[in-house]
């Protein structure tokens, strides 16, 4: 179902999201960086959330979103869609020292204008749970670890920031305030 996209400074977008504990699945990354307790979800609940994220991302007013996070539709959970895959309980495990600055937009900001030059790591590695469903409705969960570079790394970091309560415009403002 297509959901309303929350706009900054909505509180859900400004707070870290809770991890998801998938029923019947063991996974080490069920705590958030700030120690929040995991929210239990069964296959049907998670499928509904994933469908809502995907439907909303594919029907944004300005085209198709390359990424979209659960908090943007009012669900403060560590789940996002990026580059055609769902990421549950992601954790960035490695970053390159090289920083690049790229213009970014966001569907929760100013009609998605590419007005925010945000520093991002050129390359990252992320560990997460990938979920998908068979045609018969059976949920398949895989623990994955992947490296991303350039634009793909930028997209993952942008969505990762969403589940940590950070907006690309906030990072820019903080850098200006810090005199960088």
Structural overview:
This protein is of the alpha+beta class. It has one domain (11-177): Peptide deformylase (Peptide Deformylase). It contains three helices and nine strands; from the N terminus they run E-E-H-E-E-E-E-E-E-E-H-H. It has helices at residues 43-57, 150-163, 168-177; strands at residues 20-22, 39-41, 67-69, 79-82, 85-95, 99-104, 116-121, 123-133, 139-149. The protein is globular and about 40 Å long. The termini are far apart. Residues 171-180 have low confidence and may be disordered.
Please state how the strands of the largest beta sheet are arranged side by side.
Answer: 3-4-5-8-9
Query: What is the share of helical residues?
Result: 10-25%
CATH superfamily: Peptide deformylase
Q: Determine the N-to-C terminus distance.
A: 42 Å
- CATH hierarchy: architecture: Alpha-Beta Complex
What coarse outline follows from CA principal-axis ratios? globular
Order of helices and strands: EEHEEEEEEEHH
Contiguous uncertain segments of 5+ residues: 171-180
What's the total count of β strands? 9
**Rg calc:** 16 Å
